[in-house]
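Q: For a teaching session next week I want to show students how multiple molecules come together into a single three-dimensional assembly. I've collected the sequence lines for a complex. Could you give me the predicted C-alpha coordinates for the whole thing so I can convert them for display?
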Amino acid sequence: MSTPAATVVEAPAKPERRVGCALVTGASRGIGAATARALAEDGWAVGVNYSRDREGAESVVASIEEIGGRAIALGADVGAEEQADEMLAGVADRLGPVLVLVNNAGVTSDGLLARLGDEAWNHVLEVNLTAAFRLTRGVLGQMMRERFGRIVNVSSVVGLRANPGQANYAAAKAGLIALTRTVAAEVARRGITVNAVAPGLIETELTREITSNGADGLLGAIPARRPGSPEEVAACIRFLVSEEASYVNGAVLPVDGGMAA
Amino acid sequence: MTTAIKDQVTERVTSALVEFGEEPENVKPDSRFEELDIDSLDLVELAQVIEDEYGIEVTDADMDKIKTVQDVADFVSQRQS
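A: Of course. Below is the structure for the complete assembly, covering every listed component.
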Protein backbone atom coordinates (compact mmCIF):
# COMPACT_ATOMS: atom_id res chain seq x y z
CA MET A 1 0.00 0.00 0.00
CA SER A 2 1.42 3.36 -0.95
CA THR A 3 1.26 6.13 1.59
CA PRO A 4 0.17 9.51 0.26
CA ALA A 5 2.92 12.10 0.26
CA ALA A 6 2.94 14.12 3.45
CA THR A 7 1.96 17.65 2.55
CA VAL A 8 1.85 20.25 5.27
CA VAL A 9 -1.65 21.71 5.42
CA GLU A 10 -2.32 25.09 6.97
CA ALA A 11 -4.70 25.21 9.94
CA PRO A 12 -8.08 26.59 8.87
CA ALA A 13 -8.52 30.33 8.92
CA LYS A 14 -10.92 31.93 11.36
CA PRO A 15 -14.33 30.51 10.47
CA GLU A 16 -16.59 32.52 8.28
CA ARG A 17 -20.29 31.90 7.94
CA ARG A 18 -20.66 28.64 6.03
CA VAL A 19 -23.00 28.63 3.07
CA GLY A 20 -24.47 25.18 3.06
CA CYS A 21 -26.57 22.88 5.11
CA ALA A 22 -26.65 20.00 7.52
CA LEU A 23 -28.38 16.73 6.68
CA VAL A 24 -29.48 14.51 9.55
CA THR A 25 -30.82 11.09 8.70
CA GLY A 26 -33.50 9.47 10.82
CA ALA A 27 -34.34 12.84 12.30
CA SER A 28 -38.08 12.53 12.95
CA ARG A 29 -37.49 11.55 16.58
CA GLY A 30 -34.98 10.57 19.23
CA ILE A 31 -31.30 11.36 18.75
CA GLY A 32 -31.79 12.52 15.15
CA ALA A 33 -34.52 15.01 16.07
CA ALA A 34 -32.50 16.40 18.98
CA THR A 35 -29.46 16.70 16.71
CA ALA A 36 -31.41 18.53 14.00
CA ARG A 37 -32.62 21.05 16.60
CA ALA A 38 -29.14 21.48 18.10
CA LEU A 39 -27.55 22.14 14.69
CA ALA A 40 -30.32 24.59 13.82
CA GLU A 41 -29.56 26.46 17.05
CA ASP A 42 -25.99 26.77 15.76
CA GLY A 43 -27.30 28.41 12.60
CA TRP A 44 -27.32 25.50 10.20
CA ALA A 45 -30.15 25.06 7.70
CA VAL A 46 -31.14 21.46 8.33
CA GLY A 47 -32.44 18.67 6.11
CA VAL A 48 -34.60 16.54 8.42
CA ASN A 49 -34.71 13.07 6.89
CA TYR A 50 -37.41 10.58 7.79
CA SER A 51 -38.38 7.22 6.45
CA ARG A 52 -41.99 6.76 7.58
CA ASP A 53 -42.76 9.29 10.32
CA ARG A 54 -43.57 12.33 8.23
CA GLU A 55 -45.55 13.91 11.03
CA GLY A 56 -42.60 13.61 13.41
CA ALA A 57 -40.24 15.17 10.87
CA GLU A 58 -42.65 18.03 10.20
CA SER A 59 -42.93 18.74 13.90
CA VAL A 60 -39.11 18.89 14.12
CA VAL A 61 -39.11 21.33 11.18
CA ALA A 62 -41.81 23.40 12.90
CA SER A 63 -39.84 23.53 16.16
CA ILE A 64 -36.78 24.74 14.24
CA GLU A 65 -38.79 27.39 12.42
CA GLU A 66 -40.19 28.55 15.75
CA ILE A 67 -36.70 29.55 16.89
CA GLY A 68 -36.09 31.35 13.58
CA GLY A 69 -34.19 28.52 11.96
CA ARG A 70 -34.52 26.97 8.53
CA ALA A 71 -35.32 23.31 7.92
CA ILE A 72 -37.07 21.03 5.47
CA ALA A 73 -38.44 17.51 5.90
CA LEU A 74 -37.01 14.96 3.47
CA GLY A 75 -38.76 11.63 3.06
CA ALA A 76 -36.39 8.86 1.95
CA ASP A 77 -35.49 5.36 2.99
CA VAL A 78 -31.73 5.83 3.17
CA GLY A 79 -31.23 2.11 2.71
CA ALA A 80 -32.68 2.43 -0.81
CA GLU A 81 -29.97 3.80 -3.08
CA GLU A 82 -32.21 5.71 -5.50
CA GLN A 83 -34.18 7.40 -2.74
CA ALA A 84 -30.98 8.41 -0.97
CA ASP A 85 -29.53 9.85 -4.20
CA GLU A 86 -32.72 11.81 -4.88
CA MET A 87 -32.69 13.14 -1.35
CA LEU A 88 -29.09 14.35 -1.69
CA ALA A 89 -29.83 16.12 -4.97
CA GLY A 90 -32.99 17.66 -3.50
CA VAL A 91 -31.43 18.96 -0.33
CA ALA A 92 -28.49 20.52 -2.17
CA ASP A 93 -30.90 22.28 -4.57
CA ARG A 94 -33.01 23.67 -1.75
CA LEU A 95 -30.51 24.38 1.04
CA GLY A 96 -27.11 24.47 -0.67
CA PRO A 97 -24.21 22.03 -0.47
CA VAL A 98 -24.29 19.49 2.34
CA LEU A 99 -21.39 20.49 4.58
CA VAL A 100 -22.58 18.54 7.60
CA LEU A 101 -23.80 14.97 7.44
CA VAL A 102 -25.06 13.10 10.48
CA ASN A 103 -25.60 9.43 9.68
CA ASN A 104 -28.09 8.60 12.38
CA ALA A 105 -30.79 6.50 10.71
CA GLY A 106 -30.85 3.04 12.19
CA VAL A 107 -32.97 -0.06 12.44
CA THR A 108 -32.76 -3.20 14.53
CA SER A 109 -33.92 -6.70 13.81
CA ASP A 110 -32.78 -8.68 16.80
CA GLY A 111 -32.31 -12.39 17.22
CA LEU A 112 -29.69 -14.87 18.31
CA LEU A 113 -27.32 -15.53 15.47
CA ALA A 114 -28.17 -19.22 15.28
CA ARG A 115 -31.63 -18.19 14.12
CA LEU A 116 -30.83 -14.94 12.34
CA GLY A 117 -32.08 -14.90 8.76
CA ASP A 118 -30.27 -13.34 5.81
CA GLU A 119 -33.01 -10.78 5.42
CA ALA A 120 -32.60 -9.51 8.99
CA TRP A 121 -28.83 -9.39 8.48
CA ASN A 122 -28.92 -7.62 5.13
CA HIS A 123 -31.58 -5.07 6.03
CA VAL A 124 -29.78 -3.98 9.19
CA LEU A 125 -26.44 -3.72 7.38
CA GLU A 126 -28.05 -1.83 4.49
CA VAL A 127 -29.69 0.88 6.63
CA ASN A 128 -27.09 1.22 9.39
CA LEU A 129 -23.88 0.86 7.41
CA THR A 130 -24.25 0.84 3.61
CA ALA A 131 -26.46 3.94 3.67
CA ALA A 132 -23.79 5.81 5.63
CA PHE A 133 -21.18 4.74 3.08
CA ARG A 134 -23.30 5.90 0.12
CA LEU A 135 -24.32 9.21 1.67
CA THR A 136 -20.74 9.93 2.72
CA ARG A 137 -19.55 9.21 -0.82
CA GLY A 138 -22.33 11.43 -2.13
CA VAL A 139 -21.37 14.49 -0.06
CA LEU A 140 -17.57 14.27 -0.03
CA GLY A 141 -17.24 16.01 -3.40
CA GLN A 142 -19.14 19.06 -2.12
CA MET A 143 -17.12 19.09 1.09
CA MET A 144 -13.79 18.74 -0.73
CA ARG A 145 -14.67 21.67 -2.97
CA GLU A 146 -15.52 23.78 0.09
CA ARG A 147 -12.43 22.58 1.98
CA PHE A 148 -14.78 22.06 4.89
CA GLY A 149 -16.98 19.23 6.03
CA ARG A 150 -18.26 17.53 9.14
CA ILE A 151 -19.48 13.96 9.16
CA VAL A 152 -20.70 12.35 12.35
CA ASN A 153 -21.72 8.72 12.37
CA VAL A 154 -24.00 7.54 15.12
CA SER A 155 -22.56 4.20 16.14
CA SER A 156 -23.44 2.45 19.40
CA VAL A 157 -21.92 0.97 22.50
CA VAL A 158 -22.75 -2.42 20.95
CA GLY A 159 -20.19 -1.64 18.25
CA LEU A 160 -17.60 -1.67 21.04
CA ARG A 161 -18.76 -4.54 23.23
CA ALA A 162 -20.93 -7.64 22.94
CA ASN A 163 -24.70 -7.58 23.17
CA PRO A 164 -26.16 -11.04 22.54
CA GLY A 165 -29.08 -10.95 20.12
CA GLN A 166 -27.73 -8.05 18.08
CA ALA A 167 -24.99 -9.57 15.91
CA ASN A 168 -26.30 -7.77 12.82
CA TYR A 169 -26.70 -4.40 14.55
CA ALA A 170 -23.35 -4.74 16.35
CA ALA A 171 -21.55 -5.67 13.13
CA ALA A 172 -23.08 -2.66 11.38
CA LYS A 173 -22.22 -0.29 14.24
CA ALA A 174 -18.65 -1.62 14.51
CA GLY A 175 -18.43 -1.25 10.73
CA LEU A 176 -19.45 2.39 11.10
CA ILE A 177 -16.52 2.92 13.46
CA ALA A 178 -14.06 1.45 10.96
CA LEU A 179 -15.67 3.51 8.19
CA THR A 180 -15.35 6.63 10.34
CA ARG A 181 -11.66 6.13 11.04
CA THR A 182 -10.73 5.23 7.47
CA VAL A 183 -12.57 8.08 5.78
CA ALA A 184 -11.19 10.50 8.38
CA ALA A 185 -7.67 9.51 7.38
CA GLU A 186 -8.51 9.80 3.67
CA VAL A 187 -9.97 13.32 3.70
CA ALA A 188 -8.52 15.08 6.75
CA ARG A 189 -6.27 17.31 4.66
CA ARG A 190 -9.31 18.84 2.96
CA GLY A 191 -10.62 20.34 6.20
CA ILE A 192 -13.12 17.52 6.60
CA THR A 193 -13.58 15.69 9.88
CA VAL A 194 -15.28 12.33 10.28
CA ASN A 195 -16.12 11.24 13.80
CA ALA A 196 -18.48 8.88 15.55
CA VAL A 197 -20.48 8.90 18.74
CA ALA A 198 -21.25 5.61 20.46
CA PRO A 199 -24.41 6.07 22.53
CA GLY A 200 -25.25 3.59 25.25
CA LEU A 201 -28.78 3.20 26.56
CA ILE A 202 -30.61 6.33 25.46
CA GLU A 203 -34.21 6.95 26.40
CA THR A 204 -36.09 7.03 23.11
CA GLU A 205 -39.40 5.56 22.03
CA LEU A 206 -37.43 2.48 21.06
CA THR A 207 -35.93 1.93 24.51
CA ARG A 208 -38.61 3.45 26.76
CA GLU A 209 -40.35 0.12 27.09
CA ILE A 210 -37.14 -1.60 28.16
CA THR A 211 -36.31 1.04 30.77
CA SER A 212 -39.84 1.24 32.17
CA ASN A 213 -40.12 -2.53 32.53
CA GLY A 214 -37.93 -2.55 35.60
CA ALA A 215 -34.70 -3.21 33.74
CA ASP A 216 -32.65 -3.01 36.93
CA GLY A 217 -30.07 -5.41 35.58
CA LEU A 218 -29.56 -3.30 32.50
CA LEU A 219 -29.31 -0.04 34.43
CA GLY A 220 -26.95 -1.78 36.85
CA ALA A 221 -24.47 -2.13 33.97
CA ILE A 222 -24.41 1.65 33.57
CA PRO A 223 -22.16 3.44 36.07
CA ALA A 224 -24.45 6.52 35.87
CA ARG A 225 -27.42 4.28 36.84
CA ARG A 226 -29.73 5.99 34.38
CA PRO A 227 -30.39 6.07 30.66
CA GLY A 228 -29.13 9.04 28.67
CA SER A 229 -31.32 11.51 26.82
CA PRO A 230 -31.27 12.21 23.08
CA GLU A 231 -30.24 15.78 23.93
CA GLU A 232 -27.12 14.51 25.72
CA VAL A 233 -26.05 12.70 22.54
CA ALA A 234 -27.01 15.65 20.35
CA ALA A 235 -24.80 17.95 22.44
CA CYS A 236 -21.78 15.77 21.60
CA ILE A 237 -22.66 15.72 17.92
CA ARG A 238 -23.10 19.48 17.98
CA PHE A 239 -19.58 19.83 19.37
CA LEU A 240 -18.09 17.50 16.76
CA VAL A 241 -19.79 19.58 14.04
CA SER A 242 -18.59 22.89 15.48
CA GLU A 243 -15.61 24.88 14.23
CA GLU A 244 -14.04 24.32 17.66
CA ALA A 245 -13.74 20.59 16.93
CA SER A 246 -11.65 21.16 13.80
CA TYR A 247 -8.74 19.04 15.11
CA VAL A 248 -10.87 16.11 16.31
CA ASN A 249 -10.84 13.52 13.54
CA GLY A 250 -11.48 9.79 13.40
CA ALA A 251 -12.57 9.81 17.03
CA VAL A 252 -15.21 7.61 18.61
CA LEU A 253 -16.88 9.33 21.52
CA PRO A 254 -18.82 7.04 23.88
CA VAL A 255 -21.94 8.76 25.25
CA ASP A 256 -23.04 6.06 27.62
CA GLY A 257 -22.88 7.09 31.27
CA GLY A 258 -19.63 5.20 31.62
CA MET A 259 -20.85 1.87 30.21
CA ALA A 260 -17.81 1.35 27.96
CA ALA A 261 -15.35 2.65 30.54
CA MET B 1 -10.17 25.08 -31.73
CA THR B 2 -8.59 21.93 -30.31
CA THR B 3 -5.47 23.84 -29.32
CA ALA B 4 -7.59 26.45 -27.58
CA ILE B 5 -9.39 23.74 -25.59
CA LYS B 6 -6.10 22.08 -24.69
CA ASP B 7 -4.61 25.38 -23.53
CA GLN B 8 -7.66 26.14 -21.45
CA VAL B 9 -7.65 22.67 -19.86
CA THR B 10 -3.92 22.87 -19.18
CA GLU B 11 -4.48 26.18 -17.41
CA ARG B 12 -7.35 24.77 -15.36
CA VAL B 13 -5.43 21.63 -14.39
CA THR B 14 -2.41 23.70 -13.43
CA SER B 15 -4.54 25.90 -11.18
CA ALA B 16 -6.08 22.80 -9.58
CA LEU B 17 -2.65 21.30 -8.88
CA VAL B 18 -1.46 24.57 -7.37
CA GLU B 19 -4.58 24.58 -5.19
CA PHE B 20 -3.64 21.06 -4.06
CA GLY B 21 -0.32 22.47 -2.82
CA GLU B 22 2.04 22.12 -5.78
CA GLU B 23 4.42 24.97 -6.60
CA PRO B 24 3.33 26.71 -9.86
CA GLU B 25 6.83 26.61 -11.34
CA ASN B 26 6.92 22.82 -11.01
CA VAL B 27 3.81 22.26 -13.11
CA LYS B 28 4.63 21.80 -16.79
CA PRO B 29 2.51 20.11 -19.49
CA ASP B 30 4.75 17.05 -19.40
CA SER B 31 5.00 16.94 -15.58
CA ARG B 32 4.16 13.46 -14.36
CA PHE B 33 1.75 13.47 -11.42
CA GLU B 34 3.87 10.91 -9.60
CA GLU B 35 6.79 13.35 -9.67
CA LEU B 36 4.67 16.19 -8.31
CA ASP B 37 3.41 16.62 -4.78
CA ILE B 38 0.10 15.09 -5.84
CA ASP B 39 -1.51 12.16 -4.09
CA SER B 40 -4.41 9.83 -4.74
CA LEU B 41 -7.01 12.13 -3.15
CA ASP B 42 -5.80 14.98 -5.37
CA LEU B 43 -6.32 12.79 -8.43
CA VAL B 44 -9.84 11.95 -7.27
CA GLU B 45 -10.57 15.65 -6.96
CA LEU B 46 -8.97 16.34 -10.33
CA ALA B 47 -11.28 13.76 -11.93
CA GLN B 48 -14.19 15.51 -10.25
CA VAL B 49 -13.08 18.89 -11.61
CA ILE B 50 -12.97 17.42 -15.13
CA GLU B 51 -16.42 15.87 -14.71
CA ASP B 52 -18.02 18.99 -13.24
CA GLU B 53 -16.45 21.57 -15.49
CA TYR B 54 -16.30 19.74 -18.80
CA GLY B 55 -19.32 17.47 -18.44
CA ILE B 56 -17.29 14.36 -19.17
CA GLU B 57 -17.53 11.12 -17.24
CA VAL B 58 -14.11 10.02 -16.01
CA THR B 59 -13.79 6.37 -15.07
CA ASP B 60 -11.10 4.84 -12.89
CA ALA B 61 -9.71 3.22 -16.05
CA ASP B 62 -9.44 6.66 -17.68
CA MET B 63 -7.61 8.02 -14.65
CA ASP B 64 -5.20 5.10 -14.74
CA LYS B 65 -4.11 6.23 -18.21
CA ILE B 66 -3.81 9.90 -17.32
CA LYS B 67 -0.30 10.50 -16.03
CA THR B 68 0.50 14.10 -16.99
CA VAL B 69 -1.11 17.51 -17.34
CA GLN B 70 -0.89 17.05 -21.11
CA ASP B 71 -2.74 13.74 -20.83
CA VAL B 72 -5.65 15.55 -19.18
CA ALA B 73 -5.74 18.16 -21.94
CA ASP B 74 -5.64 15.43 -24.63
CA PHE B 75 -8.35 13.44 -22.85
CA VAL B 76 -10.76 16.38 -22.55
CA SER B 77 -10.12 17.58 -26.07
CA GLN B 78 -10.67 14.09 -27.48
CA ARG B 79 -13.91 13.56 -25.53
CA GLN B 80 -15.28 16.93 -26.49
CA SER B 81 -14.60 16.55 -30.21
